[in-house]
User: What shape does this take?
Amino acid sequence: MFPSSLPEPRTPDPMAAPPLRWGILGTGWIAARFAASLLAHTRQQVYAVGSRSLATAESFVGALEGPVGLEREPAAYGSYAALVADPAVDVVYVATPHHLHHEHARLALEAGKPVVVEKPMGLDADQCRELAGLAADRGLFLMEALWTLFLPKFDVVRQLLESGALGTVRTVLADLGEHFEPDHRILRADLSGGPMYDLGTYPVALATWVLGEPAEVAAVGTVAPADLSPSRVDAQTAIVLRTASGGVAALHTSLLGTSPTAAAIVGSQATLTFDGPFYQPGGFTLATHDGRVLRYDEPRIGHAGLHWEAAEAARRISAGDTESPLRPLADTIATMRVMDLVAARLAR
Ligand SMILES: NC(=O)c1ccc[n+]([C@@H]2O[C@H](COP(=O)([O-])OP(=O)(O)OC[C@H]3O[C@@H](n4cnc5c(N)ncnc54)[C@H](OP(=O)(O)O)[C@@H]3O)[C@@H](O)[C@H]2O)c1
Assistant: This one.
């Protein structure tokens, strides 16, 4: 039934999440944004930073702008092993390139730390399953940092889907293409470049979250020109998924330029159309086929919204949980299974 108004997000106040002492593993683009968001919008503490180079870790620590009054100054370590060995660290955030997520999440879990690892959790479903098994064996929390699903916007979408407000949902459309400068890691094959692991996670995760795992996966793609990517990573990929119950998702991801980055969930009674970029904080419109319209808006704060995932991890770890119901490990593995099939379809 179409609602008269949209539900409120049930997302708890991030400031209320129990403060944990975070160790940040890797000091690149996302690590800086994660730390800044966490320090500005939660009571979480950046307690230690690990880098391949001590000077880089020190410079990252020096640039932190956060609450004072920690029990000690944030520690800077010149190796990831030293970071995960710090007994004061409650949880490790892994922010290295894709091909190192498995190794570094494993390093932290083996050191007895709960882990939040950037997406994708591994390079294939087997790596994700192995990490999930290790975390389960040790009774440790493990979560893929798919920040989208922790945004208040997505809790409103979650409630609309659960209540049946859209009717029967059989279609998901999602697109994510961005422009990258020539020195970006996404253009390097040795860093597992190409759009799929980076941007493609979002459309595939949206489709599998809404429709479930597909029975059929089709994909076509092109290879980046040598002047853009000397190691010739994939340039763009179009994916079609079909589920056993008749759901279809049409997805696209590209590193060749900025696309509309929009998405839609189409139901028999109503269509939910996300503003682009659909995976970031922002708005959406819910419209019925006969013209009734509801609008959701939240501040478009971009990556300053990374703190929602950190607050969720802090709540779960403090409660003794080993995963988050907002991004269960089974869903991470399901997304990765689809990405494995896409990779097989594109194999050159
Ligand atoms: N949630 C999001 O919106 C979002 C956005 C961007 C990226 N990400 C994810 O975050 C991960 C990191 O992306 P990023 O854009 O932050 O990358 P980046 O700027 O290149 O940073 C990666 C960091 O990993 C460390 N590293 C370890 N081994 C490396 C190697 N062989 N080559 C390069 N760096 C190495 C480096 O830190 P040290 O030098 O300190 O060791 C480097 O600064 C990716 O997996 C990506 O999918 C997520």
The CA atoms of residues 7 and 159 lie 7 Å apart.
